[in-house]
Amino acid sequence: MQERRPLSSDLLESEDAYLVVFDAPGVSGEDVDVTFLDRTVEVRLDRFRDFYDGFEVVFPGRGLTLSGSAELPADADVTPHGANATLTRNGTLQVEIPKDGAAESVAVVEEGDPDADGEADDDS
């Protein structure tokens, strides 16, 4: 059922950028694909269903492949180094698009990912 509905999104605006927010529970960074096409942010999420000993799926209501899109205003644009996507620990995908530039895809960074800023988050 969930795979048939597009992911809901919020579009927020600041002085110099737009932020598109998607709910992405149960997804990890390598399972997220964010692209930009014709002033639209398109998102595809692949996630996996946990297995439970002694139980089998009767009704698969939670989709494994989810997608959604958000149309951007005319002044939004994506640059290879300006746009970024962050997958938060609570399962929210945030795609920030500056108001100037051009590109076709966006890299996704997970919070706490050592590649994000050169060092891992330390909760101690």
Description:
It contains 1 helix and 9 strands, in the order βββββββββα. The chain has one helix at 114-117, and strands at 9-13, 17-23, 32-37, 40-46, 65-71, 84-87, 92-98, 105-106, 108-110. The chain has one domain: Immunoglobulin-like (Sandwich), CATH 2.60.40.790. Strands 1-2-7-6-9 form a 5-stranded mixed sheet, with no helix packed on it. It has a 4-stranded antiparallel sheet with strand order 5-4-3-8, with no helix packed on it. 3% of the residues lie in helices and 39% in strands. It is mainly β and 124 residues long. The protein is elongated and about 55 Å long. This is Molecular chaperone IbpA, HSP20 family. InterPro entries: A-crystallin/Hsp20_dom (IPR002068), HSP20-like_chaperone (IPR008978). Belongs to the small heat shock protein (HSP20) family.
Quick overview:
By secondary structure, the protein is mainly beta.
Spans where pLDDT lies below 50 across 5 or more residues: 101-105, 116-124
Assign the CATH architecture: Sandwich
Distance between the termini: 41 Å
Q: Helix share of residues?
A: under 10%
Per the CATH scheme, the topology name is Immunoglobulin-like
Structural class comes to mainly beta
Question: What is the C-level CATH assignment?
Answer: Mainly Beta
Strand content: 35-45%
How are the strands of the biggest sheet laid out side by side? Answer: 1-2-7-6-9
Spatial extent as radius of gyration: 16 Å
Helix count, DSSP H or I runs of 4 or more residues: 1
Q: How many strand units?
A: 9
Using the alpha-carbon principal axes, give the shape. Answer: elongated
Number of domains: 1
Overall mean pLDDT: 77
Question: Helix and strand string, N-terminal first?
Answer: EEEEEEEEEH
How does the major sheet shape up? 5 strands, mixed
